[in-house]
């Protein structure tokens, strides 16, 4: 089974539209035969995508550092415990064909930017998507374009990140198994 890592928010103080998008994404990717890997927490968008995965019977792996024990969603297919946040990111990417950044905060950015760097260096083979729902990632898109304009990023490396505007557009990027 092909797997996709999803980086997303653990905040409960966000617009509910982001949680609904996470649920829609989980349903759509599982229907196409993909398994999901996420932080596997119980709250925020992370909780929404994990709960929806469980509800629709999809394969969902949670990856958490030991110091977050007790925050895991108990219904996931499997839990991988890591020593650090850095090893968590590595474990989340392992064996995945793509990473998706849903709207999220600094942790999501850390995970996604590191993955973009690894992809650029040929150390991660998967595709990169940032769901630009309601323009959430437009500032990141503009920043990457600015990096290209100033010579800080090659156009080919900027092109590694796709910014679909809707869950439907994002789902159309994936074929089922």
Structural notes for this entry:
This protein has 177 residues and is α/β, with parallel strands linked by helices. It contains 7 helices and 7 strands; from the N terminus they run βαβαββαβαβααβα. Strand 1 (3-7), helix 1 (16-31) and strand 2 (35-38) form a beta-alpha-beta unit. The termini are close together.
Global Rg: 15 Å
- Write the H/E string, N to C: EHEHEEHEHEHHEH
Give the strand order, joined by hyphens, for the main sheet. 4-3-2-1-5-6-7
Coarse structural class: alpha/beta
Helix content: 40-55%
**Largest beta-sheet details:** 7 strands, parallel
Beta-strand content: 15-25%
Average of the residue pLDDT scores:
95
Number of separate helices: 7
By DSSP, the count of extended strands is 7
Shape: globular
The residue ranges in which pLDDT falls below 50 over 5 or more consecutive positions are: none
């Amino acid at each position: 089974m092909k797997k996709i890592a999803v980086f997303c928010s653990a905040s409960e103080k966000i617009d509910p539209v982001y949680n609904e998008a996470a649920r829609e994404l989980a349903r759509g990717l599982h229907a196409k035969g993909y398994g999901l890997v996420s932080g596997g927490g119980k709250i925020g968008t992370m909780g929404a995508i994990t709960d929806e995965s469980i509800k629709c019977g999809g394969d969902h792996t949670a990856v958490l550092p030991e110091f977050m024990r007790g925050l895991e969603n108990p219904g996931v297919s499997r839990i991988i415990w890591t020593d650090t946040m850095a090893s968590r990111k590595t474990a989340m990417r392992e064996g995945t064909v793509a990473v998706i950044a849903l709207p999220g905060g600094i942790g999501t950015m850390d995970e996604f930017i590191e993955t973009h760097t690894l992809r650029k260096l040929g150390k991660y083979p998967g595709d990169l998507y940032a769901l630009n729902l309601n323009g959430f990632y437009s500032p990141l898109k503009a920043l990457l374009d600015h990096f290209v304009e100033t010579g800080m990023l090659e156009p080919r490396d900027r092109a590694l990140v796709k910014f679909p505007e809707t869950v439907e557009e994002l789902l159309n990027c994936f074929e089922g198994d």
